[in-house]
Amino acid sequence: MKYIRRIVVHHSASNNPEHDDIRVIDEWHKERGWRQVGYHFFIQKDGWTQMGRMENKQGAGVKRYNEHSIHICLSGDAKFTLSQIISLDSLVSSLKERYPNVKAIKGHKHYNPTTECPGMDICGSTGEYIWGPDKLLKRVDYEEE
Question: Among the residues of 15-118, which ranges form H helices?
Answer without folding.
Answer: 22-31, 82-98, 108-111
